[in-house]
Amino acid sequence: MYARIMTAGLYGLSGEPTWVETDVENGLPGFFMVGLADQAIREAKERIRSAILNGGHKFPDKRITVNLTPANKRKEGSHFDLPIAIGLLLASEAVLCRGDLSGTAFLGELTLDGRVLGCDGVLPMVIGLQRSGIRRVVLPQENAAEAGLVKGMEIMPVGTLGEAAEFIEGGLSLSAFVAEGYRPPEESPAGLDFADIRGQQTVKRAAQVAAAGGHGLLMIGPPGTGKSMVGKRIPGILPPLTYEEQLEVTQIYSVAGLLDPQRPFLTERPFRAPHHNLSAAALAGGGTNPRPGEISLSHCGVLFLDELPEFSAGTLECLRQPLEDGQITIARAGGRCTYPARFMLVAAMNPCRCGYYGDPVRQCTCNESDRKKYIGRVSGPLLDRIDMHVAVERIAYREIRGGLHPAAEETAGPPVSSAVLREGVMRAVAMQKERYDGRKIASNARLTPRQTEEYCPLDRVCAKLMESAFRRYHLSARSYHRILRTARTVADLAGSAAICEEHLLEALSYRMPERFFE
Q1: Helix, strand or coil, per DSSP, at residue 137
Q2: Alpha helices in 385-417 (DSSP H)
Q3: Whether 192 contacts 232, CB under 8 Å
Q4: What does the domain layout of the chain look like in residue ranges?
Q5: What is the pLDDT of residues 411-422, one digit of tens each?
Q6: Span 140-167, average pLDDT
């Protein structure tokens, strides 16, 4: 007998319909799987055998052939257990189908006692099934909330193989529901606040500009000046994720197996801060079966690299292509997959190994050769791809005492809060949305060179200023365009439709502090 069951294969973030064909015929007993199945699927034979027997059904003592189509694409994942088991029960006539399964897909991993466990990547698979015309999916109970993000899909959660078999026979009515999509909460939990940082008004302004335009930001300064504090607070002033961005980010975390079953949707922008012992594969993604790395896990959010020169050179160079293209392609012998990687890079570093080069208070103990070697661990091409470079200076005592002593508060002024910075960011983002309406441009930082010339025109005064800066600082063509995009963001924060001289001057000030790299 023959049975055909629908499921899904996962290729990067793309879920594609996959058919499980099962044939049970007379002959020497055997269980054969074809169709480029990975090790997890090949091992499913023993899980399925035990699950069927422990579920009270008879396992056929015949020749069993399972084919996964399309046969020319590699299949991977434990979610093939349930559709293979259902196909085997139907083909052996241990279960008789009382309805039409042509529009129903099955996903889930089986245990030896027949329980259906959750699996990774359910969200992109359900989205792919819906796009192919499937409107109903049977899947594990713990993945039901995640699948419920796909509006209009009929979700049918099951706890055991026996429940799925009874449903097929028509003897059990599953507690199905039609997904309504995700409804975001009215209020987001409060995070870290820029008001905790005393002084550093220039750095806070730079952080606001970076957040408003999605620009990369490099902070350079002595230890203890607040670089890490600034980096950790930038997500709090970013604009909220759109529904499309939420869905895309959640798919990435679903594939990576990092979703919380109790809250399987991400509504806040990701913030990833890996340690500097991170490997290149962990940053870019990879493995035998490629999985997203920190670059993709930071998609639509912030990738914060503290102590930037301490990362290995090979690891840092993995950032170059994603910073330009907004995606990363991982190629392996078994295939290749592409993950989105539109992240905001925020990095912090000391000016030298001891950390005190250029500090007016403490003397640097590094010699010139050691200092240049330390700075040189961050390559010029990578620095050129970071839009903004800001020097973080040591702050005065009166600024530290601000908010604790009335007299000091009057001198230093009240600290700028995240709410104030975010208000300016939202105004700038609104201008960008209106300007780029109808075009697939997420932010000023994502403008192509041609779009930069279109949306960032300079008048004669600004053009002359830019020409002078280009020659003096020996800027590259890439630096030129990045400065223009930053100036466009500064103008947006000021509510100006045109880039003026003061906007361009501020953008130029956010380039490499020469005294650290000369």
Answers
A1: strand
A2: 397-400, 406-412
A3: yes
A4: 2-178, 194-440
A5: 445 678 999 999
A6: 91
pLDDT score at 358: 85
Band of pLDDT at residue 199, cut at 50, 70 and 90:
confident
Is pTM beyond 0.70? Reply is yes
Conformational region of residue 157, where left means phi above 0, alpha means psi within -120 to 50, and beta covers everything else: beta
- Which class is 2-178 in CATH? alpha beta
Distance in angstroms (rounded) separating the CA atoms of residues 193 and 415: 10
Confidence of residue 13 (pLDDT cuts 50, 70, 90): confident
Distant-in-sequence, close-in-space partners of 508: CB < 8 Å, separation ≥ 6: 465, 469, 483
* Strand 344-349 to 177-178 pairing: unpaired
CA distances from 439 to 1, 215, 442, 447, 482 (A): 53, 19, 9, 11, 20
Bridge partner list, 14: 11
Q: How distant is the alpha carbon of residue 97 from its chain centre?
A: 41
Whether the domain at 2-178 and the domain at 194-440 fall into the same CATH topology: no
User: 145 or 303: whose pLDDT is higher?
Assistant: 303
- Give 493's contacts (C-beta < 8 A, 6+ positions apart): 208, 209, 212, 424, 425, 427, 428
Strands 136-140 and 104-106, bridge-based pairing: parallel
Contact assessment for residue 306 and residue 367, using Cβ atoms and an 8 Å cutoff: no
At the topology level, CATH places domain 194-440 in: Rossmann fold (3.40.50)
Give pLDDT tens digits for 420-431. 999 999 999 999
Cα–Cα distance for residue pair 65/213, rounded to 1 Å = 55
For 279-302, write each residue's pLDDT tens digit.
Answer: 999 999 877 678 899 999 999 999
Strand partners, 163: none
Distance of alpha carbon 153 from alpha carbon 181, whole angstroms: 9
**pLDDT of amino acid 513:** 56
pLDDT at 473 over 60: yes
Side-chain half-sphere exposure of 484, counting CA atoms within 13 A: 26
User: Which residues, in sequence order, are CB contacts of 369 under 8 Å at separation 6+?
Assistant: none
Question: In angstroms, rounded to a whole number, what is the distance separating the alpha carbons of residues 192 and 190?
Answer: 7
